Amino acid sequence: MRQLLKKMKNNFIENAYFIRKRLVCVIFICFIIIFSAYNMYINADEIKEAFFECVNDVRKDPEELQEHISSFEQELEENFAYKMQFIECFGFVQKTLNKKEISNFTYIKDNTGSLHYASFYRDDDNNCFEYAMRVKRLKDYVSKYDTEVVFVVAPSKYVASDSRFSKDMPVNDPQVLVDETLFYMNRLGVDTIDLNLYFPNEEIPYEEAFFKTDHHWTAPAAFYATEILTDFLNEKYEYNLDCDKYLTKENYRKEVYKQGMLGSMGRATGFQYSGLEDMTVLYPKFQMEIERTFIERKEKSITTKGDIIGTIILPEKLIQEDIYSDSQYSVYLNSIYAYEQIKNLSNPNGKKILMIRDSYFSPVITFMTPMCGQIDAIWNLTENHEIDIEQYIRENQFDCIIIEVYPYNIGDSAFQFFMDDLVGGEE
């Protein structure tokens, strides 16, 4: 009898264990289903729009099915209910545990609290020579119009001499790729500027050159880089850009906005983990009449006209209530559009420049505008079906074409132009 009762007891305990496991599993599945339904309900409009956009893209270009599906999945991730609350909770736990890495080593934190990209393995890009050849073909094509071409590499946030970690970390250092790309550019006769050589410096120390929560540089660093770029253009090509009048610190007003900046890295990890930081903005003391045309999504063109402040410097970006929607860095040109054209109506005879660039050069374009007559800017990572860079160059003439690339963006997608050899008579 005792053995029977003992056996029954053991069976009950064993069955209770599996019952609890099944119960937890059922509860978890029900939670996922309910939460998914709730997420689709509150984001119905955004999800519906993304779905139909994906369907239309597939109909137009069925060969890129996987890419269109990936874009739809990205939209679903962006419209995830309570997304930032989950990220903030996770970031708080990571900070409480004093973790120096987050999201499976997507980002790592140095001793100053600055976030960096991480990578255990470096993907060798063996196409650096091809990228240089594309720029060389572009240079050869526009040479008949006496158009100058300059290739500029923006500085990397990781600086071996200044970025210190409490222990060994798999930092993603792009300098090898930068050096190889510049080597081929110089070898093919393309004028280059490596801004990594200028930052940090005595005037702009490391802590003031880069944001802690973002991969971008600060406004003072971008201003310093504009001085380097304009000096190069004046000395190399005798452009006579009026730096003394429009590019001196005396002609700009400095404003510091306390604890309002949360960059892309900070939004990915949560401010509980990354913290907030100050945003320095440089406002010109002079006025100029600017006409700016830019293209938003779906090829919608918008034109604004007025003073520099209000057209290319947007103070409203500094006072937005939702710190997760965008960063204060967007005060300059609203960060980046696929295409924009900025005409300086106060200096109509100034140089006409094309910038093939990424978001790093948004403040540089802002600081250069007063010295130029027109600046056209194309995002170098934009798809050809939005803006065909090569076709645009063939249809327009410029005094100078500046190709700027952020080190981590060096790749095939950043050089989508002049991919084929020039035919006879084009050079």
Please report the distance between the alpha carbons of the first and last residues. Answer: 101 Å
Q: What is the residue-mean pLDDT, rounded to a whole number?
A: 90
Question: How many distinct helices?
Answer: 14
Helix content: 25-40%
Major sheet attributes = 8 strands, mixed
- One letter per element, helices H and strands E, the order comes to HHHHEEEHEHEHHHEHHEEEHEEHEHE
Describe this structure in words.
By secondary structure, this protein is of the alpha/beta class. Helix content is 40%, strand content 18%. It has 2 domains: 2-78, no CATH class; 109-414, no CATH class. The strands form 3 sheets. An 8-stranded mixed beta sheet has the order 5-4-13-11-12-10-8-9, sandwiched between helices. The protein has a 3-stranded antiparallel beta sheet with strand order 1-2-3. The N and C termini lie far apart (101 Å).
